[in-house]
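Re-run with default settings, no changes from the original entry. Doing this only to confirm the output is reproducible before filing.
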Amino acid sequence: MLTIIGIAVVLGSVIAGYAMAKGNFHVLFQPAEVVIIFGAAIGSLIISSPTKALKVIIGHLGGIFSDSHMNKAHYLELLLLMNAVFFIMKDREAADFICDTVRTMLSANYPAYELDNLMEIDLEANQHERMLPAHSITRIGDALPGLGIVAAVLGIVVTMGYINESAEVLGHHIGAALVGTFFGVLACYGFVGPMGTKLEHHAHERETYLRVIKTSLLAAYSTSFMVQFAVEAGRRAIPGDDRPSFIEVEEAIKKWKTKA
């Protein structure tokens, strides 16, 4: 929702400012410039990205228009899950159905630092894939001003065919050519660049969520599965306003035990 509001603010501000300057809106309607700029941008993305990367990028585009999925409630739910996992781990047979990291913790006598390295490698590999859409969209945004110049140059080439026409006709064609540069710069800094940044924020939020799990698992492993300490370690890894208080976690665990 905020992305749509942001787009409306950008467009509204540009249109309002152009109207205040008594600009001619008819000149801005240049579909050929749009086709050149955005068609070339999409083509450059296809050229620079393998098939797998394109699938990842397309799959994450919807995240541009969605708000953050991480908040205090989600983190509190995660801490309750970690609490339940550590209690389940008392039953070796049930623990075999838990994630690969927990299975590794139970079946191999890894030192804590080795387990830390193993989880870090996993996190980095996952984060690399999550950042791919953000980096690709950002690169497209960076290319748009240059593609706008390409469109403008082509517009000037077209204008040269009217060199013997009146100043009014030449002015119209030159203005139309410059619209290409305007579209490229506006799309870069007003839309595509910020969209890439938003996808990057989503990727970092997901990484933070997984690092809370890593912190809890490592604390549990290092203390022979002291549940309360492991959950508290995970709570400390939650940033800012999303972090539930110690009392909130305690009360949530008490309610969970009551239901269990």
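Residues 33-63+70-91+109-259 form one domain. The CA atoms of residues 88 and 94 lie 7 Å apart.
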